[in-house]
């Protein structure tokens, strides 16, 4: 790679102050630091001796998403083969899936890079590495049949409205990837919800998700509805099959054990915080047990979903691992992380159970708690200050 390093060093003066291409310095800096570790040294303290910078952290997060992409592609091909009653192997399914999600990934990164480069050049600041994770997450939250023009519009909304208008990375209140999905959910609901968008299939074929089956149903048990749907449709909505991921859904949400492995990978490297994840699961469990107690006194079938089914239904695990733990929009104190995670889990079940129009729940729960994260940290910090002052006064 010495030739590439030499080539970058040769053109570097053109992008430095006074150079002919000074205006495009952010583009050069982004290219250089993505390909190579920076050789810049801080002149004032504190000094941290570590080979992992922010860009490397973001790249590790993207790497943790690759298994979700691979399985998502395989599952898309598998669902298509299941619908057509065709014989296929894993490789065939992978190829079918890649042809489906490849354009979605390409459009997302092209749209995201365009806005990041534009704002970087206009504002004359370095290109944000955060867009790599944002653009890697957006396709995983979408159904495989999503129109590409909607992907471009949603990505633009997530980057511009979700982040850049607040001043760029580190300034945004809401998770940009979730903002993109929320934009699609409320502006083009027919293309991101319902029964016909989750599988690549002939027009009119109904491919429900596990959450859409009990949503809106009355005087029934959710588990019975899932079992009956499994016997009537080609899909298997048993708990173990939902955990393994062989069900219709967003591209990256279905395989729960891969998401769990990614969570362990990120926790082991110290990139993400386990308190938010565990708090979210704890909050979900508590609220699900409460709704189960209320189920006999209500006709709402969603109230009867037990905690272990909430765990594997929809995007709960994906949102908890990759969205709720996003460092910019989440809490930063340890106690605050517990509170933040528990409230996300509880709100997810409340939204799922009480309002059948939004059976997913986790998206709105995280966005709502994004708005309250600074307030939670504020009160935790103030409490800590008061406790320390009280100790010093003694």
What does this 3D model show about the protein?
The chain is mainly α and about 400 residues long. Among the domains are: about 55-190; about 270-385, no CATH class. It has 15 helices and no strands. Helix 7 (about 175-185) runs antiparallel to helix 15 (about 360-394). The longest helix has about 35 residues, at about 90-125. The radius of gyration is 23 Å and the shape is globular. It starts with a helix and ends with a helix.
Portion in helices: 55-70%
What is the quaternary state of this protein?
Answer: single chain
Number of helices: 15
Low-confidence stretches: 44-48
Please state the structural category. Answer: mainly alpha
Mean pLDDT value: 86
Biggest sheet record: none
Concise summary:
The chain has 394 residues and is mostly helical. It contains 15 helices and no strands.
Keywords:
single chain; mainly alpha; 394 residues; 0% strand
Detail the topology: elements first, then pairings.
Blueprint: H1 2-15, H2 25-35, H3 54-84, H4 90-123, H5 130-140, H6 148-160, H7 176-187, H8 222-232, H9 239-244, H10 256-268, H11 274-294, H12 307-312, H13 316-323, H14 334-354, H15 362-393
């Amino acid at each position: 790679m010495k030739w590439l390093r030499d080539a970058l060093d040769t053109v570097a003066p053109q992008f430095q102050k006074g150079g002919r291409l000074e205006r495009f310095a952010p583009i050069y800096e982004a290219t250089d630091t993505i390909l190579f570790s920076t050789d810049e040294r801080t002149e004032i303290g504190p000094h941290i001796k570590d080979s992992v910078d922010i860009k490397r952290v973001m790249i590790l997060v993207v790497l943790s998403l690759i298994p979700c992409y691979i399985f998502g592609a395989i599952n898309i091909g598998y669902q298509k083969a299941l619908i057509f009653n065709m014989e296929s192997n894993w490789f065939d399914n992978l190829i079918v899936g890649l042809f489906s999600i490849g354009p979605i990934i390409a459009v997302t990164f092209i749209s995201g890079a365009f806005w990041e480069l534009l704002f970087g050049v206009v504002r004359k600041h370095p290109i944000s590495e955060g867009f790599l994770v944002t653009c890697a997450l957006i396709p995983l939250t979408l159904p495989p049949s999503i129109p590409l023009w909607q992907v471009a519009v949603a990505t633009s909304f997530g980057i511009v409205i979700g982040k850049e208008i607040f001043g760029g990375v580190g300034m945004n209140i809401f998770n940009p990837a979730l903002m993109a999905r929320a934009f699609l959910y409320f502006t083009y609901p027919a293309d991101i919800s319902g029964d016909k968008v989750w599988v690549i299939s002939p027009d009119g074929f109904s491919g429900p998700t596990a959450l859409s089956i009990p949503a809106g149903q009355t005087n029934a048990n959710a588990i019975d509805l899932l079992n009956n749907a499994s016997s009537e449709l080609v899909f298997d909505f048993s708990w173990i099959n939902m955990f393994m991921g062989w069900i219709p859904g967003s591209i990256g949400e279905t395989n729960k054990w891969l998401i769990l492995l990614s969570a362990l990978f990120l926790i082991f490297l110290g990139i993400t915080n386990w308190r938010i994840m565990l708090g979210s699961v704890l909050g979900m469990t508590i609220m699900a047990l409460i709704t189960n107690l209320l189920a006999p006194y209500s006709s709402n079938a969603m109230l009867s979903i037990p905690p272990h089914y909430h765990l594997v239904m929809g995007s709960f695990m994906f949102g908890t691992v990759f969205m709720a733990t996003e460092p910019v929009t989440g809490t930063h104190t340890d106690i605050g992380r517990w509170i933040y995670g528990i409230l996300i889990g509880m709100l997810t079940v409340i939204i799922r159970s009480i309002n059948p129009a939004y059976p997913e729940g986790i998206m709105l729960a995280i966005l709502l708690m994004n708005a309250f994260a600074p307030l939670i940290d504020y009160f935790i910090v103030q409490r800590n200050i008061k406790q320390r002052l009280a100790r010093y006064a003694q």
